[in-house]
Each structure stands twice: as structure tokens, then as C-alpha cells.
Amino acid sequence: MGSLTPTLQLVKEEIPVKQQPLRLSGDIKTGLVLVDVVNGFCTVGAGNMAPTEPNEKITKMVEESVSLSKKFAEKNWPIFAFLDSHHPDIPEPPYPSHCLIGSDEGKLVPELLWLENEPNATLRRKECIDGFLGSYEKDGSNVFADWVKKNQIKQILVAGICTDVCVLDFVCSVLSARNRQFLPPLENVIVSTEACSTYDVPLHVAKTNKD
Predict the structure, then answer these.
(1) Alpha-carbon distance 198 to 35, whole Å?
(2) What's the CATH fold of domain 27-208?
């Protein structure tokens, strides 16, 4: 990667994010969180929110997410996978209809379908952008918070799509919950730059989309 532009360098210096190589060990209980690595966002032509042609960023994200998942599974470390899932009668404006319940869009990409039978993996269908909010049950309990507590997770490693939407919202909510001591014993929230991705909306689509 080339040198950063002055603007990007300034942003990097000012934002409260520490970038560094990641080395995981069994000394700190770590859980992997996958955000929406599903056909509806990753598989070419799979739906309204899927890429229309092969996308290098998304391909790289999927490859890295699969690699991390296999490593966590081999070590019997906990995995939590969010699957975007929507009822056809409950829209999510400004986004077009996507990842409807029962459709292939809401399923994990083929390379990750094995997680459905992985004993250390928890799959959670969410009906909203923010997976943390989408983890709440009607009785007030939170499936993600229960997962953290049950596994005594000290840090999570987050991967998935889109970096600036579902991943960002989830991470911000988790940080707020951690800071309010709602997620003991969680301490660290780590986002993988290699295993996250987003994509640009073409200008003509943005101009012609009524939403």
C-alpha cells in the first residue's frame, strides 16, 4: 500500500483507533464475530444488495473471514455469526428489499455453510442493521451478551460487511455497552481490516434510486 494522503494521515492520527498487527493466543479468551457474511451481500447477483459483478474487496473479505473461522474452529474458540434476515412486510428504508426470511440471500456464503454444524458457532438472524440491538429477545435478554458471558470472552475479533454500516453500528453499540459494564467480562473490541469490506454505490444508482 502506498503512502497515505495528508488528509488520511490526519484522520488516522486523530481517530481513537489503534492499528497494529494482531496475534491471538489462548491466554486471552477471544471470540470471533462475523457480520452478515451472507449471499445477499457477498455473492454476485444474489439480490438487490449483492455485488453485480466480482468485487475484489468482498472476495478478500470472504476469504479472510473463512480463514479466521477455520482457525477459531480448530482451536475450539467461540464463533458468533450474524445473518441479516428480514420479514417481507417489514421494510428497512432507505435500503431496497433484501435478505428476506427463507431466501438464499440470508444464508451464509457457501464457504461458511459448515458453521451451521459447528458446535462452537452461534448463528443469530437479525432483522436490523445493528446486530447488538438485533440480539435482544422479547423478554429483554440479549443473545450476544449471553454468549459473551457464557464463554467468558475477554475480547472479540469482528469481521464482515459492510464496514461503514452493519459492522460499524455493531462495534459502536458493543463499545457503549462495554463502557456501561453491560458486557462483562468483555474488555477489547478488535476489527480486522483484512476481513471487513464495503463497496461504493455507483453515482447513477444513487441519483436514480428513489430512496
Answers:
(1) 12
(2) Rossmann fold (3.40.50)
